[in-house]
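Everyone, carefully examine this protein record:
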Amino acid sequence: GPVKEKYDKLISEGLTPIRRWGQPDDIGKAVVAIAKGLFDFTTGAAIPVDGGFHIRRL
């Protein structure tokens, strides 16, 4: 629909540094990393899996 088309365009133009929609596997990879304890030096952190959307533009 029109909303998806709008965001497809925004994402392709750089709304996020990683210019694609997130996929379920992106979340899955973060969950696996947490479950395996791959963040040894991280405590109490929020781990954004958002393609860089949280990064402010310069």
Q: What stands out?
A: The first helix runs from residue 2 to 12. The chain has a mean pLDDT of 92. Residues 34 and 40 are 9 Å apart (CA to CA). The radius of gyration is 14 Å.
